[in-house]
Amino acid sequence: MPAMLDNSHRFVWLVVLALGLWISVLLPVAAQVRVPGELNRYFREYVGLSDAEIKQIEKGTALAKIWETGQKPEIRVFGAVYINAPPAQFVALHRKLEERVDGEHYLAVRRISTTPDVADFSELKLDDEDIRDLRDCKPGDCMAQLPNWSVEKFRSSINWNAPDNRDQVNRLVRQLAVDGLKKYMTVGNAALGTYLDKDYPVNVAETFQALLSRFKALPAFVPEFRSYLLDYPKATLPGAEDLFYWERVHFGLKPTFRINHMIVYRASKLPTAPFLIADKQLYASHYFQTAVDLWVCAPDMASSTGKGFFLVTIKASRQHGLTGLKGSLLRGVITGRTRDSTEKGLAGMKRKLESAN
């Protein structure tokens, strides 16, 4: 204590010191969040995160980065954030599909019934440009991306000279979506067909399998979950929940219609068991030849509050038109948008879940 303080100042200084000691005893010291060993090794060895980037995640700041695969047509984005909330709350929020709509990247999202029906697609309406693309579509030369089994339908089933050709197209699109989804539910990836819109055919099932093969050994990415993604419905996954939905998204140069299969799974009821979620693309009208978003909720077992988890996501896709000079420029735009939207989405998810606790 300084010798020059008079009695009144000495008294104030002692009160402040006592208050500080009292508060430090009563208030718990915040535990330092640490990425657990297995996940830490994954971040370092497979994703290539630096110490500073891992520290960023541990401090609760969302991180997203482009994760190169060496395949120019492929885009893969890694993201992670620590969220101080029960992981089950993220799973519940992820199921609330309509809440994804933000007017910027997600324009519309709708759940599909367990027995698909055209009523599930009643709000789906193509814009004028998409309808013109379909009118001029033929195998090997089409601005719209269509499976081989549906190309001829638009040539033979639509009276393009009729004043109601727009309504005819929308009705056919809805019916084809239902037929394709029902077939997928019966035979799996083989129903996804082959895209014949460009010079070379793209077999969707083979392309998806190749994309998934480049996923490295993600902790808790259990073999049965991967098998289910590849071999649904022949493969079984007890306890898994299957949801189907369609969406209109805007991540490229024009809005895109997609149909997705969401799988929610937890390997066991043990508190250490992570939640796994996959959003698997079944069809996209533009750009995306195949895609999957994987989410892992790894519980923070060191948390003194009994809650908290590391949310890890990998968004992977193979897209048309990303090679060559023009494609490289487009790829730069798309990867930047995807990285930014991933980081923004993780930060928003953290705010939403933590504010509810």
The number of helical segments is 10
Distance between the termini: 43 Å
Low-pLDDT residue intervals, each spanning 5 or more residues? 1-5, 8-30
Helix content estimate: 25-40%
The H-and-E topology, N to C, reads as HHHEEHEHHHEEHHEEEEEH
What is the number of E strands? 10
Task: Report strand order across the widest sheet.
Answer: 1-2-10-9-8-7-6-3
Strand content: 15-25%
Specify the biggest β-sheet.
Answer: 8 strands, antiparallel
Residue-averaged pLDDT: 85
Q: Pairing-aware structural class of the strands and helices?
A: alpha+beta
Radius of gyration: 25 Å
Shape annotation: globular
Provide the fold topology.
Blueprint: H1 7-26, H2 37-47, H3 51-58, E1 63-66, E2 74-83, H4 87-95, E3 106-112, H5 128-135, H6 148-156, H7 165-187, E4 194-195, E5 202-203, H8 204-213, H9 223-231, E6 241-249, E7 256-266, E8 275-284, E9 288-299, E10 309-319, H10 324-355
Describe the structure.
39% of the residues lie in helices and 22% in strands. It is α+β, with helices and mostly antiparallel strands. The strands form 2 sheets. Strands 1-2-10-9-8-7-6-3 form an 8-stranded antiparallel sheet, sandwiched between helices. It has a two-stranded antiparallel ribbon with strand order 4-5. The longest helix is centred in the C-terminal third of the chain and has 32 residues, at 324-355.
